[in-house]
Amino acid sequence: MNTAVRRQTRPHCICTVVCNYDYDQAAEKLRCKKRFLQDRISLLPHQKLGESVAFCDCDLRVVQSMFTVVPDEIWERLLNPQPDQAPVSAPPSLHSIKPAGARRPSAAAVR
Question: Is the pTM of this model over 0.70?
Fold first, then answer.
């Protein structure tokens, strides 16, 4: 099937190779129960091929995003990032850098 034709009716799909999954395969990829998909099929993006239902990778990505839970505290942090509480110190100037002390004499030099 030509991908350009599919994109017109499936704008979320960016698949370049057709790779469809049935309920069992889709549930395994999403790590959910087959029944979860069957019960919600009218709400989920999918392809209807005769009486068979198929999902492509793009469909599964949309399904995953539909059921992603982000706690309010995380949303707050993402939307309103707070500056670090610790003051940021400036790097030391070249004048303030001191050379390291003398090295320990090697065993060969001591003899």
Answer: no
